[in-house]
Amino acid sequence: MIKLIASDMDGTLLNGQSQLSDGNRAAILKAIDQGVLFVPCTGRPLCGVTWLIEQFPGDFPVIICNGAGVVTSKTGRVLFSQNLQRSDALEILTMSAQTSYPYILWEGDKLHVNRVCMETEIYRQMTGAQMHLLGDLNELGEITKIIWIIPQELGPQLMDEMGECFAGRVNCHTSHPRLLEFVDIKASKGLALAALSEQYGIAPDEMMAIGDANNDISMLEYAGCSVAMANATEKIKARAKHVTLSNDEDGVAAAIERFVLG
Fold it and tell me: Do 130 and 167 lie in a common domain?
């Protein structure tokens, strides 16, 4: 019996216009009415999901920043947090400055960019955060994650190269074909689900995880019922036990109807 639904947002819960469909919302509300815990899982910070939180009742956990944090939706209580190690963050930023890519870092809910350009402005609009030009690194507090905005065709290569470079210290994965993200090795959506398993007393076999991208693999492997979107790559589909419809066809609702509502 499924007691927790963990759903990725972009490319999964949200359609191609980054909207929550009526069908997906209705299916989630039905599951909530039956006592199922709904957990949005996203690479965005909390400020980037406020509008989604308002669509659902209760004070439920939200996995943010690709698993670097878990907070409650209404009260903002921190259930899990794992920032980058200072030395790793500075090493990544030094390497970032040697590339031509626009790059971003999150200091908690504060968004820093190396330059203002079309790419960083689009990202700012998506998150709803105020953008700050990156200044003296020594003045920064805890760094949650760092993002490179890269050419889409370089995603697989850079993910492998950076993963090897920071092996055992940092998780490097694409959350979108053009976003290469760096978080601490102890931060992932799967580890965030493990923290929720302990706090809520819900076993992995009682969880369903739904996703479409590389940053979803850890939670697909953790949850007993794993579902990939039809719009996911073959690599992601191979890591999941089931495949649902695409994000433009209410794939999340279809999975909930099949595996939760019966």
Answer: yes
Q: Give per-residue pLDDT as tens, 234-245.
A: 999 999 999 999
Residue 89 confidence (pLDDT) above 90: yes
257 is in which domain, residue-wise?
Answer: 4-81+187-261
- For 102-115, what is each residue's pLDDT tens digit? 999 999 889 999 99
Instruction: Examine the domain organization and report whether 127 and 67 are in the same domain.
Output: no
Nearest residue to 192 via CA among 87, 40, 10: 40
Alpha-carbon span 62 to 189, nearest angstrom: 11
- Verify that 72 and 200 share a domain, yes or no: yes
Q: How many domains does the chain have?
A: 2
d(CA 259, CA 169): 36
The pTM of this model reads: 0.91
